[in-house]
Every structure is written in structure tokens, then in C-alpha cells.
Design brief:
The structure holds two protein chains of two kinds. By secondary structure, chain A is α/β, with parallel strands linked by helices. Chain A is 47% helix and 18% strand. Chain A is elongated, with a radius of gyration of 24 Å. Classes of the chains: A alpha/beta, B mainly alpha. At the A-B interface, helix 2, strand 7, helix 7 and helix 8 of A face helix 3 and helix 14 of B.
Amino acid sequence: MLGKKWIVAAALGSLLTAGHALAADKKVIAVSIPAADHGWTAGVVYHAQTAAKEINAAFPDVNVIVKTSPSASEQVSAIEDLSASSKIDALVILPYSSEELTEPVKAIKDKGTFVTVVDRGLTDPTIQSLYVAGDNIAVGKNTAKYMIDKLGGKGDVVVLRGIPTVIDDERIKGFQDAIKDTSIKVLDIQYAHWNSDEAFKLMQDYLAKYPHIDAVWANDDDMLLGVLEAVKESGRKDIKLALGGNGMKDIVKKVIDGDAMTPVETPYPPSMIKTAIYMTVANLVGQAPVRGTVKLDAPLITQANAKEYYFPDSPF
Amino acid sequence: MTVITGSTPVKPGREWNIGWTDIGPFLALLALLLIGFMVNPDFLSTTNLGNVITRSAFIAIIAVGATFVISSGGLDLSVGSMAAFITGITIMFMNTLAPGFGTWAIPAGMVVAIAAGLLCGLLNGLIVTIGKIEPFIATLGTMGIFRALITYMTDGGTIPIDRSLREAYRPVYFGSFVGIPIPILISIVVAAVASLILYKMKYGRRCAAVGANEDVARYSGISIVRTRTIAYVIQGVCVAIAAICYIPRLGAATPTTGLLWELQVITSVVIGGTALRGGKGHIWGTMAGAVILELIANLMVLSNFVSEYLVSGVQGVIIIIAMLIQRFSK
């Protein structure tokens, strides 16, 4: 009786290892990202899919699988399904929320998977093998520096902020810290929820409230679109600068074209997912160790370097 | 009292039955204008008021449709997503036609928008009436469907209108006729037609009857299914008209277009004096309600004493106070 069981077990075991050996021919990289629900996440999806296509073509023994999820709980299910159905060698994840994803990602890490976390960190940083993120403080700081420079250190500025989150707070903090010792005065700062329509309304109200505005900063490009439309419609000539942030293609195009009101842009590029996927692949196939934290800077995009940040085919 | 009612028939609009519910929203509007002027004299400048009323036009037009739906005892949560969806379809259609037909693509697109609105409204109506599903759940479902469709159509990004059409279409939002911005004119025409239907035609009375008491309406030989379905179709057409005015403003459809408009629409209808449980609808009150909502938001920015973190809280308090004043002044 016992013998029979052993034979079955041995047979099963050899089958499993055989299957495993087949799968091991290809290294599997799972990419888990939020589904596209606004401009920036649409950019993330686009860059993840482009990276997958490029890498699958360039490295025949690597298979990059991209999975999008519309909510945190569905992202948890997605990565559980991914790790259950096949052995994954690396997981690149842009978590929906830090708290909910930490435990499930840890479970995958414990199986020996290489984990790359992008943009939003997990609550336990020891889980990540590699962390790639943008710099929100620099987004605010670099925009402010350019504004100070361009306005000669003094002027009246209105600011539109997004949705109350860490991302928004950091951008605003970076901006406010940079202008602290200058004569730049922030006339007003209000939430417009990273939404063009709300930004349009808010900008109209700012224009009605303040007879003189030197510059506008919308901490995201979706909002900047609304701002520009409101300024254009008002026919006001006192506004010298209207700057955004994130790196939307329409705005980068303005920079390329040498727009007078929006001559520069600050990136918080959705292409960071592509950077992360490429680095993960380098670690897996090229034996180029990449463990650590990579903070992508937010250098000013000017006419000189705008091409590097211009993706005409991306939805964002 | 009898003397007064006896003298009213001389006036053309005798069914308009002027009462507190009718005047209430306009008094609130007046009070708001006064407070606004005290807070910041710029508030009453023609540019500011022009901006604010023009901005409220979309919500007002959609809310006119919602007055029919709510009056007939229904509810439509899908209007915001529907507006985004119709905006997307219209822009895509216009862009396809633009190379061959030039600016003729704009009127053609408008026809498509109305047709799409009609069908979306019909879909909502049939699910509610023939499918006999609670309006809240039925339209919650279509709200998700329309939102998903626009997200799918845009790949999560934006669908911008063709550059060649942009300038030609712009006046529909930014233009004016004898000094009045076009969206305001459109919303007034929509409201005028709607009040004609609601107050002067048989359908209007059926609508209120169905909303006030379904059983009594049925015994009087009114078709509940037909009345309610038509209300949803009217709602769909109103959403389409709003979308037509909306497109030239930013010239693009995005997955966040029309987000939470349904709540603003329902609030406008209720501030306007129409009961959420159905019954008599108040078209002009609804219009005032939409303007009040937009004015409150405008006032928050123009005043200096509300912290940016507390804006929506103060808005909520003002809305509730406005409703209480209406209730107790009756």
C-alpha cells in the first residue's frame, strides 16, 4: 500500500519538475499596474505594454506579462492568480495602495521572487528588491525655481492643487519651500482635483478675484489644460507663465513648439514603469545587479531636451 | 385668498400657481447674490456672473431633464457618465467626418449626439419600466457602463477634437448673442420648452400624477411604463444638449468628464423645489438651483475666509441652510 503511494508521488513529482523545467526555459516577469482611469495611469499602461513588447522581442527567453487591475482588491487577486498559475521570476508592481498590497506582495517575495516596486512604496520597505519612483518634491521645487528665475524673484502667483494625498502635499511643499525666501507671493491656493473642468472654473474665479496675476502653477497637466482655456477666454495679458507638471504629451508638445506661456514642463513621468521593467530584466538576464532605490529626478523639460519626454503615441 | 386666486386667471400663466416653493429658490439666489456682494464686490461684476451662469448651463440643462425623471418618481444616476460617453462618441464622429466634410462635421456630430442621448435615455427607461428594476440600481448599473465605455474609448487618456474644427466650434461655448453667452441662451430655451411640456401639455400632468401616486395614476388610465420611459428619454436628450455645449469648452473627452455631475444635478432639482419622491416638477426652480450651486462654489473661491480644506464642508452647510429656509418659510 505504502509502496504504491510512493510510486504515485514520485511520478507526480517528476511530472511537476519536468513541467517546471520547461517553464524555466523562459524567465517570467509579471507586471501588475492599476487600470487606466485617468491620464497618468493611461500613460503607465501604455509604457508597460510598450516595454513588454520590446523586451519580449529582444530577449526570446524572457516573457513579460502585463496585468491591469481596476482596484486594490482586484490587484491583490491578480497577483495571487499570477503567482499561483505559473512560477514568476520577478514581479514589477505599481501598488494601488500601500497598506492593502503589502502582505500579498510579501507572500510572493517569500517564494524567492525578485520584487520591483514602482512609484508608491509598500509599508514594509524590506520587501522590495528594487524601488523606482519619481520625485514629487522636486516637481514643485524645480517649477518654483524656474518661476522665480523668470519673474525676477517677485510676483503674484496662484496655485491649483489636486486631490488631498501625499503626492499633492509633496508637490506643494516643494514649491512653497523654494519660494520661501523670495518676494513671490502666493495669492491663492485651492483644490481642483486634478480635473480639467474644475481647473477651468477655478481659474475663471481666480481671474475674477485678482486683477493682476503674474503666473499660474497647476500641479498637474490635466488641470493646466483647463487653466490655459480660461486664460485664453478671458483675454487677460498680465499672466506671463502658466506651468503644469507630469509630462502630458500635449504640454510637452507646447514646450517643443516654444510656447510663450508654457515654455517648460516638469516630469513625473509614467514612463518610470518602463524604466523599472528594463532594470528588472537587466538583473534577470544580464547579471547586472540593480538592488536599491532609484529616485528619478524631475529635471526641467525645455525645448532642448523635450524630445526625450515626448511620446506622441501614448494616450497621455 | 379666493379673491387673489380669482384674479389670477387674467394672467396667461394661471397654472403656474405661484407659491413659496416657486419663489423660494429665487429668494435664496437673491440672498446669495447679496452675501456675495458683501464678501467681494467683484462678485457682481458682469464678467464673473457671466462666467458662473455660463458654467452652470450644463448642470442646468441636464437638471431640466432630471426634473422630468424625478417628478415622475424616478431617479437617474447615470447622467454624468452618459454626458462623458456622448461627448466621446460625438468627438470621435466629428473627427472621422472632419477630413471629408470640413466644418459640416459639427452639425452632423450634434445630430449624432442627440441620437445617442435618445438611445441612452431609452435604455435607462426600458430597464426601469419594462425590466422593473429600481431606478437607483438600474441607473447605477448604466452609470458604470457609460463610464467604462468612455474610459475604453479614450484608453484612459483623452480624445481631443480635430484642430480644424476647434475654432469653428468654439463659439458654441464662448460666443454670445446680443450680449448673452450662447450656453445661457440654450439653457433658457431648453427650460422654456420643458416648462411648456410639463405645465401646458397632457404629458406633463401625467408625469406629475405618476410621481405623486402610481396607483391613482394607473386607475385613471395613465400608462406608467410609457410616462416613465418618456421621462428618461427626455433626460437623455437633455444630457446630449449639455454635451453639445460642453465639447467646445475644453475640446476633449476624458474618463473624468462629467464626474459626480449626477449629484449636482439631483441637488439642483431638489433645491429648485421638486420633491425627490416625485410629484410636481419645478423647471425654473431647478434652473435657479443649478445657478445657486455654482455661485456657492464661486463664492468659496472669491471669499478669503474659508480654508481650502473646508470648502466642501461650507458648501454643504450652505445648501442645508438654504433648504431649511425654504422649508420653514412655507
